[in-house]
Amino acid sequence: MKRIFYFLSCTTSLICHSQTTAKYTISGYITEAGSKENLPGVSIYNPKLKAGTTTNSYGFYSLTLPGDSVSLVFSFVSYKAKQVTLLLNKNITLGVELTSDTQLDEVTVSAEEQKKVSDEVQMSSIDLPIEQIKKIPALLGEKDVIKVLQLMPGVQKGSEGSSGFYVRGGGPDQNLIILDDATVYNANHLFGFFSIFNGDALKSVELIKGGFPARYGGRLSSVLDMQMKDGNKEKVHGEVGIGLISSRLTLEGPIIKNKCSFLVSARRTYIDALIYPFLPKNEKGGYYFYDLNAKVNYILGPKDRLFLSGYFGQDKFYFNSENAANKTSDKTNLNWGNATTTLRWNHLFNPRLFANTSFIFTNYKLGIGLKSKNNSDYFNLAYNSGIQDFGGKINFDFMPNPNHFIRFGAIITHHRFTPNAYVVKSSNSPDNQNKVRIINAIETGLFIEDDWKITQKLRINAGIRLSHFYTDSKNYLKPEPRLAVRYMLRKDLSLKASFSTMNQYLHLLSNTGIGLPTDLWVPATSTVKPQQSQQVALGLAKDFTEKNFAVTLEGYYKKTNHIIGYKEGASFLSALDFGQAQEVKWEDNVTAGQGWSYGGELLIQKKKGKFTGWIGYTLSWTQLQFNELNLGKKFYAKYDRRHDISLVGIYDINDHITVSATWVYGTGNAISLPLASYEAIGHQVNNPYNSSYNTVNDYGNQKNNFRMAAYHRMDVGIQFHKQKKHSERIFELSFYNVYNRKNPYFYYASQEQGYSKLKQVSLFPILPSVSWTYKF
Amino acid sequence: MNQMMKFISARIFSLFFIPAMALLLYSCEKDANVKLPDIKSQLVVTSFISPSDTLITVNVSETRPLYTPSNNSNNGTVDNAIVYLSDGINSVVVPYNNFRYSINSSLLPIFAGHTYFLSVATPDGRLVNAETTVPSGPVPVIATSYHEAINNGSENGAFPGEIYTVLQLNLNDPSGIKNYYRTDIRGFEVNPDTVPVGNMYGILKEHLETDEGQDGKTIAIEKGIYNAFSIDSELKFFEVTLLNCNYPYYAYHKSLMSAVNSGGVDLFSEPSIMYSNINGGLGVFGAYISSKTRLYR
Fold this sequence. Notes:
Chain A is 4% helix and 60% strand. Chain A is built from four helices and 48 strands.
């Protein structure tokens, strides 16, 4: 390690002293005024030298400039820009506080100094201001990060209300969802209707759809990187929210002023409590979910900071019935939940070298319990599946001069998979049937990347990631080259291109694709290869700085290999090898295939001013091919979506009233719809002249042969803010599906007058909701 | 196994179903207002030919289109079709007889390695055709052995701890060509040659296999058989039938097995797309050559 630092120090000296003028470094943390919350992604710009940088995920920046009188502009969306002029004749530590911009002026910072989309080398990325998420109307008033992301081009929802998301044709398992460095495996509450991320506890949300920097790896389609708030370091602050289905509470504040702070945010639904009195005495059932985010941080000194954060969430559905007369009872429950814990240590080796070390634990578990009793007969089943990770990660940010931002590091994770474990006890076979199959695996990654400003016009991010996976006595070692290029065609207009290779050593076995908790995480093994993808993207980015909006247009082509799916006729239950003489392995029920996704995305976004929002349009194709599905022929993926449109508008009429509306349109899902039925005759080996008949369906000889009706919907909301001296109250009224569109959730055939009729079931009609929030 | 799975499948389904019902309180149902593809009844033609069969049979039926009124009955059997079978030189009309079309194979002998053509026309103008090539010869079973194993669960509904028989057969896969196999293993308490078939228990184990990755090698197929109606040691006679079948035969039966699984027992499973090599219709025209082996305990 010492050698690395020595090498870096020498490199720094070399880069910094290769020119005649002495150079000095200005570095420090940028925080929010009033809370001392670190602000990631803040732009720091020196207009004279046209040099700049941005803060890293911990709000730290470092800029090395020639010694002179230097003027720096610090700017960030939703914050008032700040200009600082100083004499740079030595290395300077400069902490800056930015004030939240509540005036909503159209222009708060001159065009030159803004952070611009056209300037960034990263393409195919979306960062969502949390405040914007809170203003967008939501299903039953439950604000949801993932559902807002679904309104962006290239990101699609699955079915109605679902919080699973599909990025550029990739499945929900191909999204790396990280919360404070910890991977979240199942981000769903209530069978996917709500995501587990509580906006009150989040500081930043960034989604990358392509052109992945080398620091990210392990998934094929996207990276959703979320950071929890650190907690107010100056004063205690809280927020209470009461909605139709849940309530939430957030409390944050200093433990030691300006040094150590905490944040706790909790949410729980109360449907079960509300319906309980109305259920018959001998039949009690219900559902609830809760989640809890907690974080503590401690500033050890100017060079060291510690963060400890955790997420705990659980869903539980239960149904118990009893019939004393018949001496029967039934108890059923289904529960699933995530837990993550991250301990992070930030250390500043010198003003240009920042390091973060994380220790990460994450656990996802699904459990099913059945207890059935009929007189003296009984049947008990306890089933569970899950995944548990322990890991460590070290990242270095090295900023030798304004033209280079070098990141390098390593990550190691130990995965422990339990594809299925069960205990069965029944009166038929009084001995317990026990089965636990545990698979251990180790995943490691080494990466280095450089964001390099070659000229004022040409900037690249080049990197390589070396990933390794070990399981089942099998080693996989794969290099993943990454490259992103930005070329300024003219002022505020750039051409961008990217290439990335990704490997994914984890597979999700899913029948439904909507993110049910029964979906099973399994590792690559000696027989099931890791998934791999290669993606190229080309795009244009244009900023209209005077008018405060930006336009991006991108095209992409992505090829994926070794993706897996259940064989026809198989499901997650096929892995339940009750009573099989030979062990049934999940590997035997899956088939490997390949996928092709390509398309174009247009985003016109206005992030500042009284009116904010965006227009997104996606034109895309996604096809799959598996040797053992659809007779080996290509077919359109269920979520292949030719057209996807979203319009989002938020208007702050004044300081007291905000109105918002969203409209979405999407081509219908491709599903397998039986068109006809017939008697299929099987050959009987020992009785060839007698035939066996089985009624089967004809799907027009093609899987996913039918398109559901197109989906469209409009939501509207109005928020009333009442500002008091030390508190704020927000009352919100919103309508989901305001014009009551009957979007298809599924189709089924109903027998009427001797023949089957195709029926459509729609889920949510117009749904009004109210919520009330109190902040202090 | 199936019963157990069905039970658990149903229970887990009910777990999803109850919250789904709650959601459906909000939901609404209506006739689907979507453009359905033009669905017409299609001919379904099924025939399996083999040099060893004395009778050639062809089943002709039609599909029942869903979502339109239909008066189709009798399993959809079509009795007024004209069925031609040809070996490329000679052709015969296969007449309708007792719910299917059949002729004695002496009228058009079936030979290993030959290609045959089938066409079916109906008075309403529908015409379908298919061709199939009989495998080049039988693949004999070269070794058969059995051993006993203790069940650690339930085989065909049996209890753990019971003894069952595992039969292993070896075959020499002909190299250079793709082969497909189907095995059928039966266990009997009495010699099937001395007692009429109807008077004994036959326990059937079926299996489909390809030589993928094993071309030209000795392929071992192992299947456990368990007699639910008697104790294991009472199974005295085993009969192994090995079919060397062509691809249409194999692919059709593989998709049929998946379709039967996905339609019935497991509510979560993937829908299965049926294989067909009938141009303009559904069903299959397949061929096989069988070989039989006996084993006595």
